[in-house]
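Lab notebook, bench 4. The sequencing result for the construct came back, and we need a structural model before the next group meeting so we can plan mutations. Quick request posted to the team channel:

Model the 3D structure of this chain.
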Amino acid sequence: MERVRRLLALIRACENVTTELRRVDDPTVAALADSLARSIREDREIFASAKPTASKSMLASGLTQGLRELPEILKHLPQVSRNVRHALLFACRRAVEADLPGFFDKERERAAQVIARGRIRNEDEWYLVRSLIDEYEAEPQRRADLPALYRLVDSFEGV
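Done. Here's the predicted structure in token form:
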């Protein structure tokens, strides 16, 4: 039951984000909103299906990854003014937190646990660290942290 509740909360959070994205008058942001809306619709169809093609945990994992990457995606909208990007990021975070309180803080805590442990245990943790790498690569002040993150990913991948 908890998995179902979490999945439904993730879907609602993504729907809230889609609503916020549609408030911005920009074709790239509109395409992002359309893509997210399509994913939500497909996930709802799979969830409601008598013979689902994906498990609830797979659906939740995909939605979580999308929300996890959202801040990074929004940072790379150069055609949208910095102020609009900042306001959109804030609105999307608020939209996610409405259904998933503490989502981004929990993600940070999980990443810190993986880093402290020094080992990635599963694919979800790999995606978590990979999204952190993407974020840090865009922030010059965090580049010193990258080699440790690269080692974690390489170790998990068997490189």
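The helical segments are 2-22, 27-48, 56-75, 82-99, 103-117, 123-137, 146-157.
Will bring this to the meeting.
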